[in-house]
């Protein structure tokens, strides 16, 4: 039972480290990367490969955009090879989030991922030709500053330098440091071990699931764990709402 507890804590720690390493932290407001006009999400859907991404250590990182049954809502499955506790490799690490697009400007979206402590974030497609490359940008306000991430995507595991330079020049002109981007290793990805899968989705770290995991290892404090987690969510929500006090609802909804 003690081993199960340790493994559970390590899995959470590794997952949080994966999330933190994919962003850079800065003082001040989120930089502005203007979303594309005349953007077609239908043409954008499908598999993309990350060529460069802000501060990441992931290998073979893929983005899969899928339509859902709800209008203007999409599923984003980030698949990568990641090391679990530095020993075994979870060659199919799935980090699954949701996207909600602005009907008046579909390239401007709100992203929601399960390990995002600060809640929702802006998600912008600022450049793409749909066939070769794309540039996406996400930013989230945090106390005293922001955390943001830029990813250069390709429809194949390699991307011509002209497209890479085009996206890097675009972000540099928007006061986002292109030197924060890390080259993503897309070599030897065909040998991934498909028998090992770790999935982080909206239910993985719910208060109910964590409370149940505590109960299963013989502890009776599961209810208390759920109470603490849900209480923390309520506190954070009240703080977030106070930050947008006085802002019209339509503006607050799409604030980065």
Descriptive notes:
- The chain is α+β, with helices and mostly antiparallel strands and 256 residues long.
- The chain has six helices and eleven strands.
- An eight-stranded antiparallel beta barrel has the order 2-3-4-5-6-7-8-9.
- Helix 4 runs antiparallel to helix 5.
- It is globular and about 40 Å long.
- It starts with a helix and ends with a helix.
- The N terminus and C terminus are likely disordered.
DSSP strand tally: 11
State Rg.
Answer: 19 Å
Classify the beta-strand content into a percent band. Answer: 35-45%
Read across the widest sheet, the strand sequence of neighbours is: 2-3-4-5-6-7-8-9
String of helices and strands: HEHEEEEEEEEHEEHHH
The CATH superfamily of the largest domain is identified as: Calycin beta-barrel core domain
Per-chain topology:
Blueprint: H1 2-20, E1 24-27, H2 41-44, E2 46-54, E3 59-67, E4 73-84, E5 88-102, E6 105-112, E7 121-128, E8 133-142, E9 145-154, H3 161-172, E10 181-183, E11 197-200, H4 207-216, H5 222-243, H6 249-253
Parallel strand pairs: 5-11
Antiparallel strand pairs: 1-9, 2-3, 2-9, 2-10, 3-4, 4-5, 5-6, 6-7, 7-8, 8-9
Helix pairs in contact: 4-5
